[in-house]
């Protein structure tokens, strides 16, 4: 259903080379360091804001980190998923693992992201400026080495179509292992109906498709939502997560209230299973780039 969208996941392993503290959730920290690296590589006008720079349409930093002038909306062509979570104190040799999934056009620039990952060794992480050493980059789906011990195998950076087959299902449990932020009328949803999930997912997938493949998805959104509204929530457990990230633009901490938990849905889920499968890779809701909105689905 979404085979026109290519994806490439890089699984990255760093080890700490010092002692200190980092935020419990690392997605924002990782994105920030990577963005600094790429901007230093490519930006020739560092004193000009991206949205005001006439070079931004062809700038690798702007296209991947600021999305200036996207007709489809402000979405970035990658998501980070931190596999190391809830760790505050760091000691030498502690491992940090995370996935970065490149989406659409970004898969053609994997080399730029790998260069940034290598350069992250030269940056201190977090306010404590902790040093880290890159150990390995792999493609986790193919179990293929991409970088290890100073050797690079670019031939193993092989994007694959986002293949999401339909399956029969009447019951689904959707469990989030990262915070999720879905806003309705600018208000954070404290629990998620199935229709709200589908509305958020279809919007995000359509924006990514348009912005980074040029393909406009044709579907009857209202008919889809009418069917999604028939799906029942039979069990759920949600809690609010108070999250903050540092914003260079605002020069301080930016609150990002979110929720975390799970829900069990029942009804004719079959036509929605490709959308839910795509969302497992592309994430859902706001701040997906830093890893929010990552979930897994299990069916009956």
TrEMBL record:
Per UniProt, residues of the CRISPR-associated protein Cas6 C-terminal domain are 174-295
Any single Pfam family the record assigns to this protein:
CRISPR_Cas6
Organism superkingdom: Bacteria
**InterPro entries given for it?**
CRISPR-assoc_Cas6_C
Q: What is this protein called?
A: CRISPR-associated protein Cas6 C-terminal domain-containing protein
Give the originating organism. Answer: Paenibacillus terrae
